[in-house]
């Protein structure tokens, strides 16, 4: 799983892994902005770093699936206030997740790639949405 380092997601990530029988059976890469590093990196080295993590996970643990997970109100995207609406924000994350999945599958066509968006409500409740 590649997800953002944001501490607010810790419990949500743990619950998701538990509910999907992946706890203690999933390599986890935590990096600010998650899919942004693949889809729209500021520097090519950011994409290379993530791709190297995927390569290492494949080599060491023979992974067959990859989960790319972004979240709303992400500081790496300028937070919620960088967007004019919740829909615009979700679309940006969706676009980046889809593009990142395409890039990963371009290099590793055998990997099953799932994309998720952890959508934070104003109340702080986080819903994980498959995209
Ligand atoms: Zn974030």
How would you describe the overall organization of this protein?
- A five-stranded mixed beta sheet has the order 2-1-3-4-5, with helices on one face.
- It is globular.
- The protein has four helices and five strands.
- It has one domain.
- The protein has helices at 10-19, 36-39, 44-61, 86-107; strands spanning 2-3, 29-30, 65-71, 112-120, 126-130.
- The protein is 41% helix and 19% strand.
- The chain is an alpha/beta fold and 131 residues long.
- The longest helix is centred in the C-terminal third of the chain and has 22 residues, at 86-107.
- It binds zinc ion.
Write the layout of secondary structure elements.
Layout: E1 2-3, H1 10-19, E2 29-30, H2 36-39, H3 44-61, E3 65-71, H4 86-107, E4 112-120, E5 126-130
Parallel strand pairs: 1-2, 1-3, 3-4
Antiparallel strand pairs: 4-5
Bound molecules: zinc ion (ZN).
Zinc ion is lined by residues 4, 6, 32-33, 71, 74-76.
Short description:
By secondary structure, the protein is α/β, with parallel strands linked by helices. The chain contains four helices and five strands; from the N terminus they run E-H-E-H-H-E-H-E-E.
């Amino acid at each position: 799983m590649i997800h953002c380092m944001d501490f607010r997601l810790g419990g949500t990530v743990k619950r998701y892994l538990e509910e999907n029988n992946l706890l203690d059976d999933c390599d986890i890469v935590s990096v600010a902005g998650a899919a942004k590093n693949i889809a729209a990196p500021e520097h090519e080295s950011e994409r290379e770093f993530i791709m190297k993590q995927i390569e290492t996970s494949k080599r060491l643990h023979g992974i067959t699936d990859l989960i790319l997970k972004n979240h709303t109100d992400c500081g790496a995207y300028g937070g919620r206030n960088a967007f004019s609406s919740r829909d615009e924000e979700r679309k940006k994350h969706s676009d980046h997740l889809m593009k990142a999945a395409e890039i990963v599958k371009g290099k590793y066509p055998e990997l099953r790639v799932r994309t998720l968006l952890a959508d934070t409500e104003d109340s702080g409740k986080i819903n994980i949405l498959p995209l």
